[in-house]
Write a structure and sequence with these properties.
By secondary structure, this protein is of the alpha/beta class. It contains eleven helices and five strands; from the N terminus they run βαβαβαβαβααααααα. β4, α4 and β5 form a beta-alpha-beta unit.
């Protein structure tokens, strides 16, 4: 039997932490191993509890979830991060996704969906649909859009033609199996391409690849 997935909850509201702990406690496959009340406590909590997934609030008083996510994802072999938010489209959420978070959950998400999201992220799958990604990107002001497109286009030129095709498919929300079918390759080959994309572009999850493809205007 596999060991339960280990989850760290980071939120400055004790009631939110208690509610999430209660929800997750009902699953035999996922366990809350620790809590933190501020982003400034995340590094020590990760060292102490070795979580597989961190549920990270965005707005916290001393160090917000964005900065905490950036610091955490810069560490060697970091846990996956799911951002907790009150709103569907939030500039801070998108910035956290660019920093390496694997997706986001609304705080009123039904319990079963929270558990599925934790399991998916732990397995390396993002929890953002293409629709939600477009909604988040649209939420940003146009300021900096040209610079983001230039950066994304330049980055994607580092990839081979086949790797770019895979990156675009990831940006469209396709699964590995769907990409394999569309591009006439095995799932193992798709995974190998995605691994090379991560390495070449210094990215660490599919969500970042998807956002880059969106920024380059290649997923419409």
């Amino acid at each position: 039997m596999n060991a339960p997935l280990r989850v760290l909850i980071v939120d400055d509201d004790p009631l939110v932490r208690a509610g999430l702990t209660m929800v997750i406690g009902g699953s035999p496959d996922i366990a809350v191993v620790g809590e933190a009340g501020d982003g400034s406590e995340v590094a020590a909590a990760v060292d102490a509890y070795a979580p597989d997934v961190v549920l990270m609030d965005i707005r916290m008083p001393t160090l917000d979830g964005l900065a905490a996510t950036e610091r955490l994802r810069a560490r060697p072999d970091p846990p996956e991060v799911i951002v907790l938010t009150t709103f569907d489209a939030d500039e801070y959420v998108l910035r956290a996704l660019r920093a390496g978070a694997s997706g986001f959950l609304l705080k009123h998400t039904p319990p079963a969906e929270i558990l599925r999201a934790i399991a998916r992220v732990a397995a390396g799958e993002p929890i953002l649909s293409p629709t939600v990604t477009r909604q988040l990107i649209a939420h940003l002001s146009d300021t900096g859009a040209a610079a983001r497109r230039h950066h994304a286009t330049t980055a994607l030129h580092q990839l081979s033609e086949r790797e770019r095709e895979v990156a675009i498919a990831v940006g469209r929300g396709k699964s590995n199996a769907e990409i394999a079918g569309e591009l006439c390759m095995s799932v193992a080959t798709v995974k190998a391409h995605i691994s090379r994309i991560f390495t070449k572009l210094d990215l660490n999850n599919r969500t970042q690849v998807a956002l880059l493809a969106h920024d380059a205007g290649l997923t419409g």
